[in-house]
Amino acid sequence: MRIRNLAAKTVLTPTVLVMLVCFYGCAIWTAYLSVTRSAMLPNYQFAGFGQYIRLFATARWNVAWTNMFLFGVLDIVGTLGLGVLLAVLIDRQVRFEGAFRTIFLYPLSISFIVTGLTWQWVLSPTIGIQNFVRELGWSDFVFDWIVRPDRAIYTLVFAGVWHQSGLIMAIVLAGLRGIDREIWRATRVEAIPSWRAYLSIVLPMLRPLLVTCVVLIAIAVVRSYDLVVAMTGGGPGYASDLPGKFVVDFAFERANIGQASAAAAVMLGSVLTVLAPYLYLELSRRDR
Amino acid sequence: MGPPVRIGRFGLYAFLVGMALFFAVPLLVVISTSLKSLDEIRHFSIFVPPSSRDFAAWWKAWYAACTGLNCGGVHVGFWNSVRILIPSVTLSVLAGALNGYALSHWRVPGADLILLALLLGAFIPYQVILYPLVKITSTIGIYSSLPGIIAVHILFGLPVMTLLFRNFYAGLPDELFKAARVDGAGFWRIFVSVMLPLSVNILIVATILQTTGIWNDYLLGLIFAGRENQPMTVQLNAIATTSTGEIEYNVNMAAALLTALPPLLVYFASGRFFVRGITAGAIKG
Known about the structure:
The structure holds 2 protein chains of 2 kinds. By secondary structure, chain A is mostly helical. Chain A has a single domain, classed as MetI-like (MetI-like fold). Chain A has 13 helices and no strands. The longest helix of chain A has 33 residues. The radius of gyration of chain B is 24 Å and the shape is globular. By secondary structure, chain B is an all-alpha fold. Chain B has 2 domains: 52 residues, no CATH class; 210 residues, MetI-like (MetI-like fold). Classes of the chains: A mainly alpha, B mainly alpha. At the A-B interface, helix 1, helix 3, helix 4, helix 5 and helix 6 of A face helix 1, helix 4, helix 5, helix 6 and helix 7 of B.
């Protein structure tokens, strides 16, 4: 008997198997480890939710977990705000559009490690902005957020916005260019000022695209690792720690598989919380 | 155009130029500091342009920068990254093209489910599956080796690459495919003689996306590559966070620039392809 489309199936079989084992199998594996007594070595005996209780009683985790929301909200607002603003301004038929776009987007091509180190240097009190302003003559100027435990997490936002708002600009600009010209003609006939037109007509039309942008940034926040490693190393102390770094440190440096798995499972839960309603809306919108 | 409009335009350009500075200055600071001597860094702010053009720090970063006791410079990491990059990009782009093709014109049962599984897989944070993957790769004996890191890059490239190609191939007219079928061409023949020649643009987009993505990777290289194959990003971070004696900012910044240079060149050379890749990769993946 001849199997239909044998070649296509043969090509897809390894992909499907690898996806099942390495993505879904491993995610379930981690989730299971989080409800065992695993410590330095994995232990496969079910032990309830003790790991989670211990995790949320750990000071460092609570800092990382709170930081995720602090960093996340500010990063989303900053990146989306700046990205949309840049897209709208460039959409106003500016000259040198190509040059502006190229400059706004280049940070996205470099590694988060380079971005993090660069901003670490720019914000360093000894060689960066503080030092520069003092040399200009304002000798008691202070801008030392990156070494202050209560401020370090906010410095990540500068770098995050710098790195990613070009992406939002590119996505939104593509959306703006797809807006029907008739709509612009209608706003001109009605003598609506262009800022009003963007705010109440054009951007609301792009709402699905903007929601996509928010989801993308939010998921990037949950995953973030490189940026915080290069910029603050999670410090001072663990003041700017994030869940993504907590998991890697606990799994590989501290060799605490149980805690790392529980933290990883919380990360997965966070991503699904953002993703599930979004995908549901997107897919039902496409079916219509 | 009346005066208010002109003032408005002026404000618009002033703001755009201001933002361009915000984006450009950090890179300019790194470039200018990498050209300074340590003495100059000690006495002048990093925002002051260099008084001379001294490539000594570049030379030192490339050949002699230290991570702990290893003072081989970032050229070691550079070549490791190249060795990781070439097979990873080639194989993951190829795998994506084949999978995307098989999922578009060939009726495969459960294709929608596979696509959904890929889409969801693209969003799973690395950290969630890192530890089990270490277990799996060490069981099959490739953990902490070149084949190991390459396999992991191909794995994590699968969802985005497959979806990218599948969306492209699904957009091609079905008549094209049917005509080739009528002529008696099979799966491979159609792929090689019909689909690939039409895929030049999407292949470039995919290659750029994977090249910058894999070059810039840090976490996977740190965990799966092993000491002998540390990619450039891992080495750079180790150099920059090594704190014995006086910090040689000029060398560290030269090392950062050297690490950023390959993807920056790709970006400046490829312009629109890069934009297409990241927006498609971001939205579809």
